[in-house]
Amino acid sequence: MDVLIHHLFIAWSLLDGLHSEMVLDVPELREGIPGNITCSVNKVKRPVKIELSLGNKSLPEIRQENIYDTASGTYTSIKTVTGIDRSWNDKSFTCMSYIQGPTNDSYVFHAFKNQTVVFKYPPSSMIMTSQETPINMLPWYPLTIICAAIDSNADCMIKWTSDLPDLHLISKTQAGHRDIVSTIQVNVSQGNSGHNISCHTECVDFVVHFIKVYTLDLPRPPTITIRPAYEKSVTGNLVGVLECEADNNPIGNISWIAKQTNDTQINCYNSTVCLLQLNETTVASVTQYACFAVNVHGQDHKSFKATNADGDTATDGSEGKLVFMNALIISVVCLVLCFGLFLGCVVYKRLTQSDEVIRSKGMSSDVATNFQPSTPGNASVQHEIHEPRYANNLASVINRSCTQVDGVNQLIYADIDIEFLEQNRAARSTQGETAHTVYTSVRFTRETERNPAC
C-alpha cells in the first residue's frame, strides 16, 4: 500500500511540474565588475528545493527566496550566487530542483539545467627572460628576449619598445591556454650597452600596468670612477672614505693600493664598489692611493691624492665643520659692522636735522625777508645776501634786562649774547666790505621759572 501511495505521489508531482519553468541565468562575467548567477523555478504549487554545483562540487549553502504569487496561486523559488572569481572560468554550473514529497523531509527530483561559465580576466603578472650575456667581446651580438603575460583569457597583446631608434623590434606572439608569450630577436653592437628594451601588456577590456625592462649589458673591460665620501664609524663619527666604482661586465675584482709603499690596503672580490677608509695616521704617512679593477676582458686603474689640508678629500668630518664655523663667524661679524655703520649714519642725520630745526625756530619773521642796507648818499643798492651767522654761546657774559608785559608782576626775561655781537662788530672792517646780517641766540624765561632780579 505504501508503495502505491509513493508512486501516485510521484505521478502527481510530474504532472504538477509540467506547468513549472526553470531559468538559469549565467552571463559573461569580467574581473573587477560585479556579476551574479541566478537559478529560479517558476509556477510551482509548493516551493521547490534548489541545489547548485560548480563542476563536480556542490556550492556552499546559499539563501533561497520563495515568492508567492496570489494571482496564480504559485511560487517562484530563486537562488543567486555572488563572489565569483577567475577559477570559475570554463567550468560547468548546474542547477537542480526538487519537489517536496509526502513528508516534509522528503523530496523528489524535479528539473535541472547546466551552463559553462565564461569569466574574462587580465594577466596576473608578467615575466621577462633572456639569454645569458656572451662571454667574448664581439662587434655585434644576436639577442633573444621573451616576455610572457601570465594567467589571462582576455583579449590582450604584448608590445615592445626601445630607446634605440635604429633597433628593429619584430616579435612573434603565441597564445597558450592562459598565457601570452612574445619573443624578439635583435642584433646589438658594443656601443648599445646601457640602452633599454622593454615590453608591456595592453588589453581591450582591461587596464593593466605591467612592464618589464631589459638593459643591454654587453661584455666590456672595467672603467673606474673614484669619489670621496663619508661613512659612519663604529663609534658613530663620520670617517672619510674613498669610493672606487668599476663599470664592467662581467663583474671583476677591485683593489686599493698605497703608492708610496705599494702595499694593498683592501681587496673587494666580485664587486662593483670598493671603499677605502681613511684616518689621520694613514693620510699623514700616505698621500697617494691607486684603485685597480680587473675582469676577464681587461683592467683599469686611477690614482687619488689624500691630504689633511685643503686637498682632494678630508680624512674626517672635522675639517669641513671647522671651515663652516669660521665662515659663519665671519658672516656674523660683517653683519654686525654693517648694522652699526647704518645706525651711526641714521643718528648723525637725525642730529643734523634737529640742529637746523632749532635754528630756524629761533629766527624772527624779519630775518626771512631780503635785506637791503643803505649806502652813504642814501643810494639804494641791492647787495648779495650771505648766509646768516649764528651764535649760540650762552656761556658768555650776558646782559639781562627786564620788561613788564601783560599786566602787573608779569615779567619775562630776555637773555641776549651781547659779548658775541660786540666782538663781531669790532672785528668787521667798516670800509669796502659788504655788511652781513649776524644773529645771536635769545632765550626767554618767565618770572616763575627764575628768581626775580628787577
Automatic annotation (TrEMBL):
Transmembrane segments: 323-348
Superkingdom assignment: Eukaryota
Protein name, UniProt field: Ig-like domain-containing protein
Stretches assigned to the Ig-like domain: 222-307
Gene3D superfamilies cross-referenced by the UniProt entry: Immunoglobulins
Signal peptide as annotated in the record: 1-20
Organism whose genome encodes this protein: Dreissena polymorpha
SUPFAM superfamilies: Immunoglobulin (SSF48726)
Keyword tags: Membrane, Signal, Transmembrane, Transmembrane helix
InterPro entries named among the record's database cross-references: Ig-like_dom, Ig-like_dom_sf, Ig-like_fold
